[in-house]
Amino acid sequence: MKRIAINGFGRIGRLAFRQLVSRPAFQVVVINDLTDVETLAHLLKYDSIHGLFPGDVAVSNGNLVVNGQEIQITAERNPAD
């Protein structure tokens, strides 16, 4: 299983996430975005173009939980740091 980090959870980041989460060969373990985790969860769950996310989306301990998998959320302006 390949472990994936996504830098930026805008339209493209969320589309990539939707594709990756549906494939068992990949596991998203970190999402880096400056937006707070509650907003990220809402934007993933209720996409105005692609509709409702077909899984469970929640927030726990500052992390995003999707289909029972906890994904760390970071807010690094420069991910190289």
Provide structural commentary.
With 81 residues, the protein is α/β, with parallel strands linked by helices. It has a single domain (2-74), classed as NAD(P)-binding Rossmann-like Domain (Rossmann fold), CATH 3.40.50.720. Helices cover 25% and strands 38% of the residues. It has helices at residues 11-21, 37-45, and strands spanning 2-7, 26-32, 46-47, 51-52, 57-60, 63-66, 69-74. The strands form two sheets. The chain has a five-stranded mixed sheet with strand order 1-2-7-6-5, with helices on one face. A hairpin with a 3-residue loop joins strand 3 (46-47) and strand 4. The longest helix is centred in the first third of the chain and has 11 residues, at 11-21. The chain is globular. The model has no long low-confidence stretch (mean pLDDT 96).
Which terms would index this structure?
81 residues, alpha/beta, Rossmann fold, two-stranded antiparallel sheet, 2 helices, 7 strands
Tell me the span between the first and last alpha carbons.
26 Å
Q: What kind of assembly state do the chains in view correspond to?
A: single chain
Query: Quick check: average pLDDT?
Result: 96
Low-confidence stretches: none
Strand content: 35-45%
Number of domains: 1
CATH superfamily: NAD(P)-binding Rossmann-like Domain
- Given helix and strand content, the structural type is alpha/beta
The CATH class designation is Alpha Beta
Question: What characterizes the major β-sheet?
Answer: 5 strands, mixed
Q: Number of helical segments?
A: 2
Q: Write down the secondary-structure element order.
A: EHEHEEEEE
* Rg: 12 Å
**Spatial order of the strands in the main sheet?**
1-2-7-6-5
Number of strands: 7
| Principal-axis shape | globular
CATH architecture: 3-Layer(aba) Sandwich
Portion of residues within helices: 10-25%
- The CATH topology, please? Rossmann fold
